[in-house]
Amino acid sequence: MKEKLEAIKAAAVNAVKNAADEKQIEELRVAYLGKKGELTAILKQMGGLSPEERPKMGQLVNEAKSYVEGLVSKKREEIKQKATELKLKAETIDITMPAKKRETGKLHPLNTVLDDMIDIFQSMGFDVLDGPEVETDHYNFECLNVPADHPARDMQDTFYLGENLILRTQTSAAQIRTMETRKPPIRIICPGRVFRADEVDATHSPVFHQIEGLVVDKGITMCDLKGVLEQFAREIYGPDTEVKFRPSFFPFTEPSVEVDVTCSECGGKGCRVCKGSGWIEILGAGMVHPNVLRMCGIDPEVYSGFAFGIGLDRLTTTRYKISDIRLLFENDKRFLEQF
Ligand code: DAH
């Protein structure tokens, strides 16, 4: 029996040594050490032994079992380690390979131009504010000196959401909100979307963008207005740009002006962009009407101010030679990727 045990042990040792993978090692464990394994089976044959021999033999079998068990777990570890090594070798990274290119987002051309404009006005000490797109009649018209029956209401086709609730037709509403909450000196711009029920074509869109500006302090004059807007126009269009102030009318300013700059496309000779005139209109402005100051609780005898509203979309289409304003709002990637 002892020889039989030695033979089984030797066979087990040999087989375990030669096992090639985890599956084989598990099969060997079952074959020798499992419930029906050969080494377990030999224990059951001890019935034929004398009572003195039994414990000795039992000990030998147990020793053999634990020896083989030790070998099995050692071999199992070895096999695992080898597999990991092989895997790592196969997975080495070639750091000379070119990297995968990631798609990055880009600024919308409107935002690029707006960022430039914000830089210019911030460098002149203006704060940048935000205002609501859904406005009340009160802020969009009444306080801007446009009462209900005023003909100037026809200048802007309004989207009504309710009797008094509208989509703002102009960022000028921000002037009123600012004067209600800040005391002079005031120096702010407020960029944002505005809405008008216009016929849609290459130069008109029902949604477009304005930047409102407002300055209120003691002793503000038309010279300040001209200085600030000329500076702005030269920074955005280049130092040689000529700036022209034309008399105009807005209910909330008196006097009112419209500002033209030399056409950046033709340099003033006249072309398709400026419709042959050599000039491009970029903004409306004026001295804040005393009525407006008064309605906001600011004494027009003590304070004066100027305001302006710049169209952002026209500035963007002329700078990038975009032929149709609608392209700015369609979010077609093929268009946007060009900037
Ligand atoms: N709100 C005017 C418009 O939409 C633009 C404008 C003109 C704004 C004169 C002003 C201003 O603040 O003083 O046509």
What distinguishing features does this structure have?
339 residues, alpha+beta, BirA Bifunctional Protein, domain 2, seven-stranded mixed beta sheet, 12 helices, binds 3,4-dihydroxyphenylalanine
SSE layout and pairings?
Blueprint: H1 2-18, H2 22-33, H3 38-44, H4 53-90, H5 109-123, E1 127-128, E2 134-136, H6 137-140, E3 165-167, H7 173-181, E4 186-195, E5 207-217, H8 222-237, E6 243-250, E7 253-262, E8 279-288, H9 290-295, E9 304-311, H10 312-319, H11 327-330, H12 333-336
Parallel strand pairs: 1-4
Antiparallel strand pairs: 2-3, 4-5, 5-9, 6-7, 7-8, 8-9
Helix pairs in contact: 1-4, 2-4, 3-4, 5-10
The protein binds 3,4-dihydroxyphenylalanine.
Summarize, please.
With 339 residues, this protein is α+β, with helices and mostly antiparallel strands. 41% of the residues lie in helices and 19% in strands.
Low-confidence stretches: none
Binned, the helix content reads 40-55%
Strand adjacency order, main sheet: 1-4-5-9-8-7-6
Biggest sheet record: 7 strands, mixed
Q: What letter string, H or E per element, gives the SSE order?
A: HHHHHEEHEHEEHEEEHEHHH
Tell me the count of domains. 2
Strand content: 15-25%
Mean pLDDT across all residues, rounded?
A: 91
Overall 3D form: rod-shaped
Helix segment count? Answer: 12
Q: What ligand molecules are bound, each kind once?
A: 3,4-dihydroxyphenylalanine
